[in-house]
Amino acid sequence: MRILLGSILAVAFFASLVFGVLDFSGTVRARQAGFGRMLALHRSIRNQLGQSVPDSAAIARAAAAEAQLARDLPSWFPPGTGPDRVSTYARAEVWTRNSDFRARANELALALDDLGKAARSGNVGQLRAQQERVAEACQACHRSYLKFY
Ligand code: HEC
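# heme C complex -> structure
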């Protein structure tokens, strides 16, 4: 009886480990999809800026959606979803230097807010400068927190 109970507990224990890992990798897939949406918005703005007459309203909308993703970004990295547990491109420093990581996400959100303002003012020169700042904010975080960068 004790052996039976022991094996039931062991099975339950390993099942919880397996399902735990599956759940964590679901979190990683979801955040990678979030970055995919971010990249698509980033490209749509870049494409607009390549036009002779950029559509400022479309840029403002995309910047607002991208800023919201940037504000959500830190919540995509709950504890236990780092490279020691799951397959991810994120470095362990995301968690060990988390306040700096959050500051980088915030810098991206602020750059996108200013891009939205520039779009609403219709100043194309300023729009291009702000889009540069946004791209730099993506890269600055990737240099510190992305593997294989
Ligand atoms: C605060 C840090 C941070 C910022 C800012 C940031 N990223 Fe990332 N990005 C990451 C991390 C960490 C990963 C790795 C995610 C993983 O694999 O779990 C990543 C992954 C990605 C990926 C790969 C997703 C995949 O399918 O594997 C793309 C594309 C990407 N980022 C685009 C962007 C773009 C575009 C911006 C700016 C608009 C941006 N990122 C801003 C941290 C950041």
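# post-check
The pocket of heme C is lined by residues 28, 31-32, 35-36, 38-39, 42, 73, 88-90, 94, 101, 104-105, 108, 134, 137-138, 141-142, 145-146 (CB under 6 Å).
The CA atoms of residues 30 and 82 lie 14 Å apart.
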